[in-house]
Design goal:
Largest interface: A-B, 27 and 32 residues
CATH architecture of the largest domain in chain A: Orthogonal Bundle
Number of strands of chain B: 10
Shape of chain B: globular
Distance between the termini of chain B: 53 Å
Oligomer: heterodimer
Number of domains of chain A: 2
CATH class of the largest domain in chain B: Alpha Beta
Structural class of chain B: alpha/beta
Largest sheet of chain A: none
Helix content of chain B: 25-40%
Order of helices and strands of chain A: HHHHHHHHHHHHH
Number of strands of chain A: 0
Order of helices and strands of chain B: HEEEHEEEHHHEHEHEEH
Number of domains of chain B: 2
CATH architecture of the largest domain in chain B: 3-Layer(aba) Sandwich
Radius of gyration of chain B: 19 Å
CATH superfamily of the largest domain in chain A: MetI-like
Number of helices of chain A: 13
Number of helices of chain B: 8
CATH class of the largest domain in chain A: Mainly Alpha
Radius of gyration of chain A: 24 Å
Structural class of chain A: mainly alpha
Largest sheet of chain B: 6 strands, mixed
CATH topology of the largest domain in chain B: Rossmann fold
């Protein structure tokens, strides 16, 4: 397919998603589709958002292509990258039509997801326990605070030595970062709960187990989800760093490999893909959080 | 104006607070919050405690509620020791607290909040608790907010729900820790009306902390003035206004005379507290 047609289709898809989002609001005020779309397209905030993108691309084009400034002259221009990305027959072998492109995406997504899920499964209980038990807090907090600042990449050699093969090592490094973020935000969440809720629950006859499930967990939930969003982001950035050092596939590997092979547009394709995936994964965590915290949503926006 | 139901229930909920003392951090800063604090509360009596901020009103409430241990004396509930020096009290549904800033669980709906006590204690099945909660809420005209979350309600409404959440446990004593403090005048007077109606209907013993003297006289059978730290009961004022209380009483000579007495007693303590504060700063 012609890349221009693909580009058109993509734009339409984006607009359709936007319109669908707006339609949900439109339903509230009983405005027609056409009216709502017109209103959205001409709204100040939409124009500003669009303006931001356009300005970014224009600056890119000007610096790299039009004026070809000294330090930027070797970089690919925006148009070149976009066409390569959408080309059925890409010059450097990576586009939305090639299998390799998806192999890299799947590898990275699999690693990030595994690390994120592990970090959540271990980090949330760890944080709850630290907030719940003074003893456990004293026991673990200094250790956590000492290990946490070690940059993830510093773990790579040890991880490779300890774990069999590169794959678990990359996942481990990614997990580690996400784990600390999750655990510490959960701890903060427990500490943020007003003492009155504990007292009220005890007055009403709650035992320890009920306090944990009826007060500690729901009370910490807003912080936990903030933590999960940050942890998702952190997982992606440490993953890409890990992949650049020790991996055969994945977007981080793709970016680094393309640099060595002087396939510059592919670097941009990899980066843009990471941007999109990162945004989608954060949005997914946010929307799960919203579902679980209906009480908060209604509090913030009214019924 | 007690209903027959209330009259028979008022046979429980008598409290004796005898020579209670509470020292925070005895080894270190050694803050004497309560010293030889004694008072008697009859079953079904509405008692209000007034005093300057930081005088130990809340400490007293916390020891009764079971959030805090005491360092001397004892507290009896219906003749049974509730807290002594050796026996740390534990909170329970026979003495439910309504908190200053409200403590409805924001993550539970109104109905889930109200049924929380009976379900957590295993005293009622969830269906039975729901039914009972719905009855109680509709009796006070709150049945249409069952599925709302507390954050969607006004502060007045929240406090009303919180009082119902306490009452559903059929407590012996209701402990109210300045529940109407942060309210505007209109909401506050509506809340007074509401609390008085519930009191008249249930005849529960009520222990009410406030620093609003008019509120104390208007609501209570007995107003106790607490001294600045170390806190004890300095003055007891018997309020003989008939029930149900009417707003017209606020302007009666009797009311104003009582208020004048309280103002004098509290003012003395407030000055002492202020001077003590100055000394601490110096």
């Amino acid at each position: 397919m012609n890349p221009y047609i693909v580009l058109g289709l993509l734009l339409m898809a984006v607009l359709a998603v936007g319109a669908w989002q707006q339609k949900k609001k439109a339903h509230l005020y009983e405005i027609s589709w056409g009216h709502q779309i017109r209103k959205t397209l001409t709204s100040r905030s939409f124009l500003l958002q669009l303006g931001g993108f356009v300005a970014f691309v224009v600056v890119w084009e000007l610096t790299v292509k039009t004026f070809s400034l000294p330090w930027f002259s070797r970089l690919p221009g925006p148009w070149e990258c976009l066409l390569e990305w959408l080309s059925p027959d890409p010059d450097y072998g990576i586009s939305i039509y090639t299998e390799d492109y998806y192999t890299h995406i799947i590898y990275s997504t699999y690693r990030a997801t595994t690390a994120f899920v592990l970090a959540t499964l271990l980090g949330v209980p760890m944080g709850l326990l630290m907030g719940w038990s003074r003893k456990f807090y004293d026991y673990s907090y200094p250790l956590v605070e000492l290990i946490r600042p070690i940059p993830p990449l510093a773990w790579v050699p040890l991880a490779i030595l300890i774990l069999p093969g590169d794959e678990p090592a990359v996942i481990f490094v990614t997990f580690l970062v996400a784990f600390f973020v999750t655990a510490l935000n959960t701890l903060l969440g427990v500490e943020s709960i007003d003492e009155s809720y504990f007292r009220a629950a005890r007055c009403l006859g709650a035992d320890k187990r009920r306090l944990l499930f009826d007060v500690v967990l729901p009370g910490a939930m807003p912080f936990i989800f903030t933590g999960l969003q940050i942890s998702m982001g952190a997982a992606w950035f440490s993953l890409v760093a890990g992949e650049m050092i020790a991996a055969q596939y994945g977007l981080g590997f793709l970016i680094w490999d393309s640099y060595s092979l002087i396939q510059y547009p592919v670097i941009v394709i990899g980066m843009a893909t990471l941007g999109v995936i990162g945004w989608v994964s954060s949005a997914a965590v946010r929307s799960v959080g919203r579902k679980l915290m209906a009480w908060r949503e209604r509090e913030l926006y009214g019924s | 104006m007690n209903t027959p139901e209330a009259a028979c229930r008022a046979s429980e909920g008598a409290m004796s607070i005898r020579d209670v003392g509470k020292i925070y951090d005895p080894e270190g800063v050694h803050v004497v919050a309560l010293k030889n604090c004694s008072l008697e509360i009859a079953a079904g009596e509405f008692v209000a405690i007034v005093g300057p901020s930081g005088c130990g009103k809340s400490t007293l409430l916390n020891t009764i509620a079971g959030f805090d241990g005491l360092t001397s004396g004892e507290i009896l509930l219906d003749g049974e020791p509730l807290a002594t020096v050796d026996k740390d009290p534990s909170p329970g549904p026979d003495r439910v607290v309504v908190f200053q800033h409200g403590a409805l669980f924001p993550w539970k709906t109104v109905l889930e909040n109200v049924t929380y006590g009976p379900v957590a204690q295993g005293a009622m099945s969830e269906e039975a608790a729901n039914k009972r909660a719905q009855e109680m809420l509709s009796r006070v005209g709150l049945n249409d907010i069952e599925t709302s979350y507390p954050g969607q309600l006004s502060s007045g409404m929240q406090r009303r729900v919180e009082i119902i959440r306490a009452l559903i446990n059929n407590p012996k004593v209701l402990l109210l820790d300045e529940p109407f403090r942060a309210m505007d005048t209109v909401t506050k007077s509506a809340s007074h009306q509401y609390l008085l109606e519930l009191y008249d209907a249930t005849g529960k013993t009520i222990f009410f902390i406030t620093h609003d003297l008019e509120e104390a006289i208007f609501l209570a059978d007995k107003v106790l003035v607490m001294t600045t730290r170390p806190g004890y009961i300095k003055k007891t004022l018997q309020v003989n206004l008939p029930r149900p209380r009417q707003y017209s009483m606020l302007a009666s000579e009797e009311f104003l005379a009582m208020k004048a007495q309280l103002v004098e007693a509290v003012h003395e303590e407030a000055v002492k507290a202020f001077e003590a504060g100055e000394r601490e700063m110096a």
